[in-house]
Amino acid sequence: MRLLGVGLAGTVLPGAGAFAPPSDARRVDVIVVGAGMSGLAAARTLRRQGKKVVVLEARDRVGGRVKAGKLAGHTIDLGGMWVGPTQTRLLALLREYRIATMPQYLKGKGIVDIAGKRTTPEGEGFGFDSRGQAEFDRVVALLDNLSAAIPPDAPWSAPHADEWDDITLEQWHRENVHNDDVLHFLTSEARVNFTAEPWQLSFLYFLFYLRSGDNFTMLASYDNGAQMYIVPESMHQVAAAIGNELDGNIVFGAPVSAISQDAIGVTVTSDQGAWQADQGIVALPLPLSSRIRYQPALPADRDALSQQMPMGSIIKLWIAYEKPFWRDHGMNGLMFTDAPPCSAISEATPPSGSPGFLVGFMDGRRALRWSGRPMEERKKLFTDMIVNYFGPEGAKPIDYIDQDWPADPWSRGCYGPSMGPGVLTTLGTALRAKFGRIHWAGTETSPIWTGYIEGAIRSGERAAADVLAGSKSDVKSTIEFSRPRNFLSLA
Ligand SMILES: Cc1cc2nc3c(=O)[nH]c(=O)nc-3n(C[C@H](O)[C@H](O)[C@H](O)COP(=O)(O)OP(=O)(O)OC[C@H]3O[C@@H](n4cnc5c(N)ncnc54)[C@H](O)[C@@H]3O)c2cc1C
After folding, report:
1. Could you tell me the CATH number of the domain that includes residue 269?
2. What is the mean pLDDT of residues 232-242?
3. What pLDDT sits at residue 25?
4. For 256-265, 299-308, 444-453, 476-485, which range has the lowest pLDDT when averaged over its residues?
């Protein structure tokens, strides 16, 4: 017998009929929602442990925020791209699937254009004068000291958590940074790292993010930092390799619209039909995870958290030239500025040395202003910028492509969501709290390298481990299952 439209406590829920699992729902052990790096990592782990898994993916491809594109005949990354030396899970996957990396090109001079002053420091230098450099070193040491006190798995329990969560990063900058050049630089650095403005970020959340990736220098650096290596012909190869391993277990074009659960299992409804399983893993950015309808409804704290973690905004722009002409002028292709439209440019020329590739990052409010406009307009904007910084040869690109992430319906922004004041201390515990049979993955749920591919992989592996460990979680389940086992008979 099947009882439909009945809540966990046996009461009829308003509108619950919409969740009725169809009789042809297919049965697996675990349903994973989302084939980004977190969902793929979860499914791969479960499959290797003998679990029957289905991954339901809205798009027609794997990788989510890791996406390949074509530029001048090469495959490039329109999403996540760099890997750093302490991102051990991602490095292990690259080794396992025999995917090569190459160091970021740093030989020669970069360009820094901050507070209206243009300098050309060696390598990835900052171009401060001696007073600016001293102040920068002092502020970074202070930030590293403060962030070292943050427990990454429970930042809300840090000694000054409430005090730091009450203020924005911008407020902290204004009170603690005593040099204009450094203030402008740090503002732009925050924009590049969070794709949000410093006034949108809680200072506690900022410190947690630094701690999650170790420290400020690790996050901001190329050499020995988070931007140390590129994957020639794209990072997306990792997603594709896991996708191949999961062949037959991923259903594409299957946006999930509803998830219901009861004493027997979880039912997930998508455009490609319904599946039932013992447990589910939702591996989506938080704001997208709450667009799914849940029965019973999401716990209030999880719902509130997802409403208060807005996605950042980024457009990633790639331009190609016959050769990396900037190298001939002793430049390494790096550019960093607080002036619009792009805060940063990096070079990403293939190992063969040609064609020459530059990649730009238009972030925060600037990205929102240019989102939804024709690509040709952004191409002109970026080309003009290259001419301005690297010289007249920049006027003759051989190819261009960009990715307007805010306009993408299955990301709605990027790199990811972040937190404003008051959110981490009041709702932070809801990030990973298991919801009955539903486990949460996605890079934002990872205490280590949150926001990065590394965090996504770790979050997927953690969610899979929780499933395998009999649904143990670091936070107690929010649902008591008291119904008899025959409450819902499965088709
Ligand atoms: C421009 C850019 C540059 C970046 N650079 C770097 C970098 O250099 N290094 C780095 O480490 N990280 C970088 N990142 C971040 C990194 O890409 C992400 O942290 C990581 O890929 C997130 O993986 P995820 O699995 O958590 O989420 P996602 O990749 O967002 O995966 C979620 C998946 O769920 C799917 N989905 C959404 N809604 C539904 C639904 N209702 N039903 C079914 N499926 C759904 C989506 O299509 C997607 O495939 C960058 C990101 C961007 C956008």
Report:
1. 3.50.50.60
2. 98
3. 81
4. 476-485
Tokens of 124: 């990835």
Average pLDDT value over all residues in the chain: 91
- Does residue 324 line the site of ligand 1, with CB under 6 A? no
pLDDT greater than 90 at residue 339: yes
Whose C-alpha lies nearest to ligand 1, atom 37?
410
* Count of domains observed in the chain: 3
Same domain, 356 and 392: yes
Average pLDDT over residues 240-257: 97
> Do 213 and 353 fall into the same domain?
no
Q: Residues 429-445: pLDDT tens digits?
A: 999 999 999 999 999 99
CA of 62 to the centre of ligand 1 (A): 10
Ligand 1 atom 20: residue of nearest CA: 453
Q: Which residue has the higher pLDDT, 185 or 472?
A: 185
Q: How far apart are CA 94 and CA 84, in angstroms?
A: 12
The ligand 1 atom nearest the CA atom of 416: 19
Q: How far apart are CA 182 and CA 381, in angstroms?
A: 27
Q: How would residue 276 be classed by pLDDT, with cut points 50, 70 and 90?
A: very high
Burial class (CB in 10 A: 0-12, 13-18, 19+), 426: middle
CA distance 348 to 77: 10
Q: What CA–CA distance (Å, rounded) separates 337 from 112?
A: 6
pLDDT band at 473 (very low <50, low <70, confident <90, very high): very low
pLDDT value of position 20: 57
H helices, E strands: number in the chain: 16, 22
- Tell whether ligand 1 has an atom less than 6 A from the beta carbon of residue 288: yes
User: 427 near 326, Cβ under 8 Å?
Assistant: no
Q: Would you call 445 exposed, middle or buried from its count of C-beta atoms within 10 A (0-12, 13-18, 19+)?
A: buried
CB atoms within 10 A of CB 485: 9
Query: 119 in a domain, yes or no?
Result: no
| CATH number (domain holding residue 372) | 3.90.660.10
Range of the domain at 319: 68-106+228-234+312-407
Burial 116-152 (b: 16+ CB within 10 A, else e): eeebbeeebebbbeeebbebbeebbeebbebbeebeb
